[in-house]
Amino acid sequence: MNFPQHLLGLRYLNSQNYSEIFELTDKYLSDIKDKKIIKKILSGRSVINLFFEDSTRTRISFELAEKKIGLDSVNFSTEVSSMNKGESLLDTVRNISAMYFDFIVVRHSNPGIPAMLAEMTNSRIINAGDGINEHPTQGLLDIYTLRNAFGELKGLNVCIVGNISHSRVALSNILGLKTLGANVSVCGPAPFIPRHIEGMGVKVYFDINDAIKSNDALNVLRVQLEREAGSLLTSLKEYHKYYGITKDRIKLNSKIRILHPGPMNINIEIDSDAVDLSNSLIFDQVTNGLAVKCALFNLMK
Ligand code: CP
Questions:
Q1: What is the whole-number distance in angstroms between the Cα of residue 239 and the centre of ligand 1?
Q2: Which of 126, 175, 227, 286 is the most buried (most CB within 10 A)?
């Protein structure tokens, strides 16, 4: 086995790595769904979850996967740390490194913080989202969900909808899906689309109806209200009108499958009744994410 020491991004995985992850994920997913006790293969080993940004899905699923697989886990929150007394990020990391955790799971708003931790500590690092760089575990669970729904990723037409320029989820999905032979496209208003994205072999749609008609699956990104509303977008109502995923729009391609990494802005990028259609894989993504994390810890042990 040749699995990387750290999971910093999907750009570092090859197709063999994906096969290993997905094969193990199949096993963990079936145990989770059957409510079977998972073997605590990492009993006695330790992990710290360093979340410098808010999270629901990623954080909870990491914590649960860690417990299932037997890791001793510790949670760090900036709000109750000595960073509030002025301690720097660097000193915080040096102190954590001195405790010899086997794994560090880290989310930070600055791209490159997981890579810095890989240099500075003796732990295995898992990137849980670094700024606008990558969100590899989200990418893995999205791609695994597509593989389970369609059986085959090669030749699958997948369109990512929303602010591609500022999305770590989009970048990880593009890198992973391209490695596995899918046809990847993006859709959104011009300010959301990186200028040279065609150079990555990614097709661009500006019309959501065309994207729906021409693809097997849509991965719908959250409108980042804290960043985009009022600056890149003229109005949320306009965004919903031109790009919102509605029940009526889905009728353009009744077989299309819908993913969303969460958290969702209901009735902005996606309507509540679209979330509940049988086309939706949104809650499968969450279950799959738990199994993917068990598989990752197993492979990186
Ligand atoms: N998809 C995702 O990263 O969700 P959270 O921010 O809730 O972890």
A1: 22
A2: 126
In this prediction the pTM is: 0.97
Helix axes 113-120, 89-97, angle to 10 degrees: 40
8 A C-beta contact, residue 219 and residue 202: no
Nearest to 126 by CA among 101, 100, 107: 107
In this structure, which residue's CA is closest to atom 6 in ligand 1?
Answer: 55
> Which residue's CA is the nearest one to ligand 1's atom 5?
55
ω into residue 263 within 30 of 0, thus cis? Answer: yes
Pairing of strands 183-187, 203-205: parallel
**Claim to verify: residue 58 and residue 140 sit in the same structural domain:** no
- Taking only the tens place, the pLDDT of each residue in 220-254 is 999 988 776 657 777 899 999 999 999 999 999 99
Q: Are 157 and 183 in contact (CB under 8 A)?
A: yes
69, 61 contact by CB (below 8 A): no
Nearest CA to ligand 1 atom 7: 56
The predicted structure's pLDDT at residue 279: 98
Domain span at 112? 10-134+286-299
Helix 282-299 vs helix 15-33: angle between axes, to the nearest 10 degrees?
A: 110
Tell me the CA end-to-end span of the chain in Å, nearest whole number.
12
In a domain, 24, yes or no: yes
